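R.M. (postdoc): so does anyone remember the format we settled on? I'll just put the structure tokens first.
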């Protein structure tokens, strides 16, 4: 880990320097404003201290980046080396500080939510072999047993499983599953004359930025709406670049915010927009700090809607752990990505039932803006029931 400190006049300057010297994979560990003393106070320009880091070349992730390493070596002398400090420790405290920063960014939005555990085990279900057969049928499609039993319980109130009418039972199960899928809530515009603000949360790598770009592209190109993009994902240089590229291609303005306080200003700048889409850094959902990450961000917003983005390639157990880590969110919409890579779709129903939150979009590939569709209940049912592993 190479850690370097930069004294710059603004974040833009810092980003350029870090990108040139440490490369695209550098991460920003900390930023803080420093008061300039002595002679310099004359100029009254704020000085920002930015600490950035990059893994040493030995680590595998650096192996195929020879050019960037050279840049690091030749341009080093300009900035202060921190490597003499315990880098691990430095990393820890700075990451914590960044979490506190992020935390500053989300509070009004989030209140403790009563986790709706709809799937209480179905009581008093008569265990017939027919029923076991259909529970297995649903389990093979990755529907959780408790939910499968619930569905069968309802089916049995309407028809007898012994009816020897397989298709009728299947159709009845489909009707109930469709009912469980509930209402779909995509992007909507509730208050005219005021931007609708949407924030994308979720683990790293699930496709938040790509999905945001797909939605932004559709809103601009198809619906002719005015969009503003904000990214709070300044943890990795490459993350900002990724969204910047989309914003340039789409001709949509992008504001990069480095701390909670800047969000208000960014939102104000976009006050004439129809929609404002906010990208965030994914954090490990195992991090206990997750809630505090977003507390401060929430504080600045009074009407932000959240898309909780999850990949369909994630196991039920992991998805559950993800939603549990976001249980401080009052409300959100479920957005599933990578349906193209999934082998079964039962988790869509499982997660819907466990969270009670509306489904929104599905993404079905890497291509922007094509590979996204509004969640369609008929299709989900078809995916769940007719696609077998
Ligand atoms: N196969 C597939 N890949 C996707 C999909 N959505 C995003 N990706 C890919 O997943 C990777 C991570 O996406 P990114 O948007 O950077 O994730 P983020 O870290 O959550 O912002 C990229 O390579 C995307 O192209 C999808 O629906 N299907
Ligand atoms: Mg991203």
């Amino acid at each position: 880990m190479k850690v370097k400190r930069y004294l710059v006049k603004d974040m833009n300057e810092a980003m350029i320097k870090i990108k040139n010297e440490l490369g695209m994979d550098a991460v920003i560990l900390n930023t803080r404003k420093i008061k300039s003393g002595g002679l310099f106070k004359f100029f009254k320009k704020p000085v920002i201290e930015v600490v950035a880091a990059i893994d040493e070349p030995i680590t595998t992730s650096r192996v195929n980046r020879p050019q960037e390493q050279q840049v690091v070596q030749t341009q080093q002398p300009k900035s202060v080396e921190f490597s003499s400090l315990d880098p691990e420790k430095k990393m820890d405290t700075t990451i914590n500080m960044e979490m506190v920063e992020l935390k500053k960014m989300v509070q009004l939005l989030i209140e403790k939510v009563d986790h709706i555990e709809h799937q209480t085990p179905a009581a008093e279900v008569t265990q017939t072999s027919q029923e076991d057969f259909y529970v297995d049928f649903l389990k093979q499609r990755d529907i959780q047993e408790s939910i499968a039993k619930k569905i069968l319980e309802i089916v049995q109130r309407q028809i007898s499983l012994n009816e020897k009418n397989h298709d009728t039972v299947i159709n009845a199960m489909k009707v109930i599953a469709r009912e469980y899928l509930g209402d779909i809530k995509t992007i909507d515009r509730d208050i005219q004359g005021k931007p609708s603000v949407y924030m994308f949360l979720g683990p790293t790598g699930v496709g938040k930025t790509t999905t945001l770009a797909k939605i932004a592209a559709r809103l601009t190109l198809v619906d002719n709406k005015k969009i503003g993009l904000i990214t709070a994902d300044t943890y990795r240089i490459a993350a900002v670049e990724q969204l910047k590229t989309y914003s340039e291609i789409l001709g949509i303005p992008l504001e990069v915010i480095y701390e909670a306080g800047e969000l208000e200003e960014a939102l104000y700048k976009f006050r004439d927009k129809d929609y404002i889409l906010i990208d965030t850094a994914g954090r490990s959902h195992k991090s206990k700090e997750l809630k505090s990450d977003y507390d401060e961000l929430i504080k600045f917003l009074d009407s932000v809607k959240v898309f909780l983005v999850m990949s369909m390639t994630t196991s039920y157990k992991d998805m559950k752990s993800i939603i549990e880590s976001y249980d401080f969110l009052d409300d959100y919409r479920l957005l599933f990505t990578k349906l193209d890579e999934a082998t079964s779709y039962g988790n869509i129903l499982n997660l819907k039932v466990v969270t009670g939150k509306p489904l929104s979009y599905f993404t079905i590939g890497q291509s922007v803006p094509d590979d996204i569709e509004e969640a369609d209940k008929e299709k989900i049912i078809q995916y769940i029931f007719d696609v077998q592993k």
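R.M.: ...and that's the designed sequence above, right after the tokens. Also worth knowing: The pocket of magnesium ion (ligand 2) is lined by residues 208-209, 233, 239, 279 (CB under 6 Å). Confidence is low (pLDDT under 50) at residues 37-43, 58-91, 97-127.
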